[in-house]
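Q: Hi! First time asking for a complex rather than a single chain. Here are the components, and I think there are two in total. Is that enough to go on?
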Amino acid sequence: MTTGDDKDDKILDDMFQAARSEMPEPSDDLMARVIADADQVAEAWPQAEAVPVATSGGWPAASGIVTAGMVGLVVGVSPPQTLSDFAEGYIYGTSDSYLVDPYDGFGFAADEG
Amino acid sequence: MTMPFDACSDVSDEALLKLFANGDRVAAKVLTLRLTPRVFRQAFRVLQDQAEAEDVAQEAMLRLWKTAPDWRQGEAKITTWLYQVTANLCTDRLRRRKPSDPLDAVTEPEDGADSADMQMQNQTRAAALNAALQELPDRQREAVTLRHLEEFTNPQIAEAMGVGVEAVESLVARGKRALKGLLAKRKEELGYDDWRR
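A: Yes, that's all I need. Here is the structure of the assembled complex.
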């Protein structure tokens, strides 16, 4: 049996539902303004600071890192012929390098004690 | 690095704000879509004015963007923080307004013939509820609004209002009892005279 209080609860729940469904939506213009604000705020922030050279091993270490980076770039863009030959043989199976058994002699020695 | 737009649904608000602080603009867009409607609705309920509510929502979100680099994860939920900022901005707006009866702005039902239209009836019921909410003491109105219109959990309300969960339960219960009393005389007008479920 539904009491008067239960009925009032249901009426109130129905009105809350009506109020939730009747809320206006924010305009597209507002959403665009908020996103534009975010962009503007982010642009005003300082860029990420580089690690000071002095705390990373000084200029000798920095020059080594730069040199290694440049060598890597050169190898990547224009690899030496010997390197590409080796890589091609390894990838396409024309190289026998994988047949080399570094423990060949060691096996006999181990068997003989 | 920027994360894909559609990969953010499971990412928390706090993690997205951190991504934004690290330069991820997509994170800001996701947060905008996720949070701005809620902030706008909160402001609209208090101010009952679309343009003013949008201004408040924009200002609240701007403050969120500005605080992003200093946001300390784990200390507060962004939704709670935004709720408090928005509430303060609305209070400032109301103070600047000329004194007037808040019920003046409420849409009254036009006539009995419109009650056949479900849309109109919904609007009428929503307006009546909002008018009754305005008559509640501030703390009760805030607790009932958060619980039943914003659909916060009781612990979330407790955090937003700075009280315990038991106090929230009491405020909501008293607020709902008062609303029933205020709306009792309007049942017939609102189409609830022979209402059964």
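A: The mean pLDDT of chain A is 66. Let me know if you'd like any chain examined more closely.
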